[in-house]
Amino acid sequence: MKYISTRGQAPALSFEEAILTGLASDGGLYVPESLPSFSKEEIASWAGLSYQELAFKIIEPFVAGDIPSEDLKGIIERAYSSFRHEAIAPMVQTAHNEWVLELFQGPTLAFKDFALQFLGQLLDYVLNKRQQKVVVMGATSGDTGSAAIEGCRRCQHIDIFILHPHQRVSDVQRRQMTTVLSDNVHNIALKGNFDDCQNMVKASFADQSFLPEGRQLVAVNSINWARIMAQIVYYFYAGLALGAPHKDVAFSVPTGNFGDIFAGYLASKMGLPVDQLIVATNSNDILHRCLSSNDHSKKELEHTLSPSMDIMVSSNFERLLFDLYGRDGAAIQQLMDDFKSGSMTLSDEALSKASELFSSYRLDDDGMIETIAKVYDSTEYLLDPHTAIGLAAARCERRRQDIPMVCLATAHPAKFPEAVEKAIAGMQPPLPHHMNDLFEREERYEVLSNDMGLVQSFVQKHSR
Ligand SMILES: Cc1ncc(COP(=O)(O)O)c(C=O)c1O
Ligand SMILES: N[C@@H](CCOP(=O)(O)O)C(=O)O
């Protein structure tokens, strides 16, 4: 399987090269040259498989030729061995024909674990084989950081640097990152917002001359294709549990960088009968504005109570646009150039294609708080703020009541006690046992100004 850039100018790469490259040399993102697709009969034959068995079926065609089957099975087994629930991605019913897919049963309590525990094992395997050392640089609005650190901290071939926006992540999220004191783990609190962190990481990929001799940068953000690939699995897992491929299913996805919902889009292209995908945003609503009124213009980023979705530049939207524009790299380059100057306008054809599958919704902090309270009142089920936005979107935007609606629960409520307490006075969701002493642990991180030179010299100095 070959991987090509969404901007059409970078060389095609193998799977292994693509996951080690991160951003393509033309600034685009890697996608498979062609997608594997599965017949209805084949999908039906997967009913009852364990999460790990299903992951193998779905991931194998993407890595064929690069990773032998038995090795891939080992990578998958190790990746999901630290999850706290045997089902890996259990579902809870919250109303008639409405389900919450709990993607927070991994070690760091957010859906990021699905891809990042997998990516950690994958990188360990590939780098060990190549006897190569790399520098990982990642940007986080709160959840990618801890999942990436957990995935990479035992890998001797990796030095990992995670940039989070200073004072813009929850205390639990920050401590999950900054209390990991391994020699190869470095946290930078950047005086800026998530987009500043992400910009800095992307710009560093374009010019890696600041790295020590012989090192290359690897991405753990969803610009790395392996992240998206691993996330396709749970759409099939949930769909199969609800009667697919014989029945359709719909998903509502709390959205920021568009990685998670893009994986749902790919699942539908690979054969899962998906009736609808709902893009649920907080008041940083650029994707909702784009899909509902063709307004994809940058605005000031707001700090909300769902901080992980405080994102204005959604990296993976480019991957969807690439398909909507008939895989025309030049057209994507033009759109991205326009967006760099403030806004881009989609063609009527692209927008109408998108609306066949996608709907969108925006919910501010007040609406989110109301949703947590209302759902808790009726079911005693406690939502995290991001999931609450997804569930409200599911209830407002759903096209068909007869098709099961799955809302992706992207984080555990204990990561966001401030929002939960605002919704239900006196409620303090407990952290799972393995994090009982999180607030007693020592923290280590560096606060840096939003200055590329400072960040890059920090990375250079601390790369071993
Ligand atoms: C808890 C949570 N929910 C939703 C999202 C949005 O996911 P995506 O960026 O893949 O759209 C994120 C971060 O990205 C997150 O951490
Ligand atoms: N919400 C994310 C932001 C980074 O997104 P990614 O999926 O591209 O890593 C976070 O929690 O860090």
UniProtKB/TrEMBL annotation:
It catalyses: O-phospho-L-homoserine + H2O = L-threonine + phosphate. Gene3D superfamilies: 3.40.50.1100, Threonine synthase, N-terminal domain. It comes from the Bacteria. Residues 101-330 form the Tryptophan synthase beta chain-like PALP domain. The keyword Amino-acid biosynthesis applies. This is Threonine synthase. GO terms for molecular function: pyridoxal phosphate binding; threonine synthase activity. Pathway: Amino-acid biosynthesis; L-threonine biosynthesis; L-threonine from L-aspartate: step 5/5. Belongs to the threonine synthase family. Its cofactor is pyridoxal 5'-phosphate. One of its GO terms (biological process) is threonine biosynthetic process. Pfam families: PALP, THR4_C, Thr_synth_N. Keywords: Amino-acid biosynthesis, Lyase, Pyridoxal phosphate, Threonine biosynthesis. NCBIfam families: thrC (TIGR00260). It is an enzyme of class 4 (lyase). The modification N6-(pyridoxal phosphate)lysine is found at K112. Transmembrane segments: none annotated.
